[in-house]
Design brief:
Bound molecules: adenosine-5'-triphosphate, magnesium ion
CATH architecture of the largest domain: 3-Layer(aba) Sandwich
Largest sheet: 5 strands, parallel
CATH class of the largest domain: Alpha Beta
Number of strands: 9
Distance between the termini: 50 Å
Order of helices and strands: HEHEHHEHEEEHHEHEHHEHHHH
Strand content: 5-15%
Oligomer: single chain
Radius of gyration: 24 Å
CATH topology of the largest domain: Rossmann fold
Number of helices: 14
Strand order of the largest sheet: 2-3-6-1-7
Helix content: 40-55%
Structural class: alpha/beta
């Protein structure tokens, strides 16, 4: 559990995260059901909140429920509500989360953990807004945008018969797949500098500086915990190395050692080989194109300094 004040700004300039932001903005303009997937710490909860805040529902309730955290026998009444006396512990009428989220957004986190027998009931709600509280004979109808999320492979859950296929299709009308950090290493340095900037304000101490070598090592690390792991790393480094320089030897062993172990390569060398220089030129051109000619932005996309980038462009006789 993090105690620091969480901001809701989504950082990142890599094409992958920019693409996710564009999709999120389009989704926010509609009331469509959305399914956010991505590894742990990639920002699913952050994006769900972003979609709500960008939508016309922003001044209405935003309610989060973690399907894995509720005891199975309570999920139904928590979501749909119950009538007093419907079961032993139902000592009062309970409105239910869906009713509380009316006109707003409901974020169903870890959706694959929703008990199987409730999946059909949720599907009914998604299809026509029907909400049948436990112990009630009549259904009520609510207008709630649902955003679901999971870091599990839902296809596997469907295949194994643990998750209803019809519900999956209904949730997945507009999927939003958040990229893991190792697939956007250009963002590592940027996120670090922004996290340090935020944390410096919070702790009121000086940021450390990081040597080029250590920086490269951090970019090569796989970050299994993604942005959460990176942010926690920054917090630890700030506290331990405030005002000092962080070299490669100061990095935690798990990060340092990964230099020598097999890792999930961002680019796989095909068995027939490649033309490295052609690939380089191609990437430079793509970077310039996607940053619409802004050389500094293009350099960032490639994890290079502006000078290093300009030098390479000159070397290949590119503008
Ligand atoms: N692009 C980003 N910019 C800034 N902060 C981010 C970004 N992505 C994630 N974070 C931060 O990283 C932490 C983890 O993000 P979040 O809780 O949204 O991840 P998640 O995908 O829901 O993870 P889990 O699957 O473990 O629940 C949060 O503190 C969040 O604010
Ligand atoms: Mg989450």
């Amino acid at each position: 559990m993090n105690t620091h004040t969480t901001t809701h700004i989504i950082y990142g300039q890599s094409p992958a995260i920019q693409e996710s932001l564009r999709s999120a903005a389009l989704i926010a303009a509609t009331h469509v059901t959305t399914f956010i997937t991505g590894e742990t710490g990639t920002g699913k909860e952050l994006f769900a909140r972003y979609i709500h805040q960008k939508s016309t529902r922003k001044n209405k309730p935003y309610i989060t429920i973690n399907c894995a955290a509720l005891p199975e026998n309570l999920v139904e009444s928590s979501l749909f509500g119950h009538k007093k006396g419907a079961f032993t512990d139902a000592i009062e009428n309970h409105k239910g989360i869906i009713a509380q989220a009316n006109e707003g957004t409901l974020f169903l986190d870890e959706i694959t953990e929703l008990p199987f027998q409730l999946q059909a009931k949720l599907l009914r709600f998604l299809e026509n807004g029907e909400c049948q509280g436990v112990g009630y004979h009549q259904a009520r109808y609510y207008d709630v945008r649902v955003i679901a999320a999971s870091n599990k492979n839902i296809h596997q859950e469907v295949k194994a018969g643990r998750f209803r296929q019809d519900l999956f299709y209904r949730l997945n009308i507009v999927p939003l797949e958040l990229p893991p950090l190792r697939k956007r290493i250009g963002d590592v340095a940027l996120l670090m500098s922004l996290f340090f900037r935020d944390l410096v304000k919070e702790y009121k101490i000086t940021a450390p500086t990081i040597t080029k070598e250590a920086q490269l090592c951090l970019q090569r690390y796989t970050w299994a915990g993604n942005v959460r792991e990176l942010r926690n790393f920054c917090e630890r480094m700030l506290i331990l190395f405030s005002g000092k320089t962080i070299g490669i030897d100061n990095l935690p062993t798990e990060i340092r050692q990964q230099r020598h172990t097999k890792r999930d390569f961002v680019f796989h060398l095909p068995s027939q080989g490649i033309q490295l220089e052609m690939l380089e030129v191609d990437l430079y051109e793509q970077a310039i194109q996607s940053s619409r000619g802004n050389k500094s932005a293009a350099a960032r996309l490639l994890g290079l300094s502006r000078d290093a980038f300009l030098y390479r462009l000159k070397k290949y006789g590119l503008r």
